[in-house]
Here is the input.
Amino acid sequence: MAFMSLDELKFLSDMRMIEGLQAEELRRKMDSLRSTSIGRKLKLGGKTQIVDIKPTSYDFYAEFFHNKISDALMFPLDQYEECMTTGTLGIPKRFLVSKAFIMDAMRTFKAILMAANLQEGKTAFQRGDTFYLNAAPKPFVTGVLADYVAREMASFVRVVPPDQSRPFHEKVQYFIDHHKEIHYALMPLVMLFHQVYPKIRQTLDLKGFFPFDTAAEAHMKRIREIVNCRVSGVYASTETCLSTIPSAEHELGFVFDPRSMYCEFLLMNQTKPDTSSITENIEPKDLVPMSGVKKGVRYLLFITPFKSELMRYNTGDILEVMDDGDSFIGTELPVFKFFSRAAKVISLVNFTTINESELLLALTRSQIPYVDFTARLEIEDGKHYLALYLEPATEVVDKNELEQKIHQSLGALDPDYANVNKFYQYSPLKLTIIPKGSFSRLLATKQGFPKVDRINMAEKDLRILLLS
Here is the structure.
């Protein structure tokens, strides 16, 4: 096998260059933004520093993006792509993303491919390799990015299927039919485990696999057995076109591309990171720069892309610091892993909050084979229930036995959950077994990137899931 050099990753090793570059890019951005209506709304003055700016969220920019107000933008209006995301709870969000920032994302994508499967200090990536993606077409962000990669990077990497506007099930079948020609793949685990592998029935021969699924850590052994390669962690914020570079030293870890954005962080409660109230009252001084994060600690991520109008933008995502650097790719940038969505928690009688990571761990410890699940709060006769909708991996199951196992596992993990049972004298778990194939059917209808919302799924998606 011929290996390519790691020139695309050299920038990660020069911390002095990174600091100087970020300072200069921030200055240029604020100079460009200062004369716009967004800049005026941010109250950018001649001496304003980034630490003076109040953190923002989507609502701050919505009027400018929806109305395409050219006075608000850093570049001419024709230098933007209008993008869409499915948004939290299935409520669509529209963004104007500059073509300049999309080109930065292409540059990061090159680094992603280089870092995905390092061997003896060299990358297994070869020019012309094939990358599989099952994404919604334009104007959804993943479709916009896939279109740019196909057009701007055709001589470097080939994205398949060539037509991302195909229906979901056709793109699944494309992978099944062409898996021997595919080198890298990004897909949710429910697709790999229950749609692809049962048809192929053999180990894949990939160079890199990106699960893009928060359940990956709980299923690493099974993933490796199927894909036969390193499992890479990549974080992506579809609202901002942000993507990261996989860590070569820490599986499922990633580092941020400092050429494209400035990252800041808000310290989270390390045991119960429920940010449903705190995120509305964040002060500028509350955020810490990347140089201030500590190993093993969780933070809420805020980003300032250099070629986008977003400033100190609250991504709503909680990350955990895995390490202070990555010796394999030679960087002192901190390595992160995704922990959970900040808003994706279930509060039971204001006594405890349950997040996705806790449910994944409870199911793993219960040793229950399952396809996937989703959970939400349901209230009956004044009682708060953690309503869990589970698709088992086996045909015959005893619902009462499964419910008891999960209930006991949650109680062992979370004393506050156990105390709901103890103090209020009822079991707060309500399990519903759903038919085989339910999650595969749901993914086939999803807009945007086909992923499962395991906490507080949108009502329309839940209705599709529960169709018998």
User: Anything to note?
Assistant: The mean pLDDT is 89. Residues 374 and 453 are 7 Å apart (CA to CA).
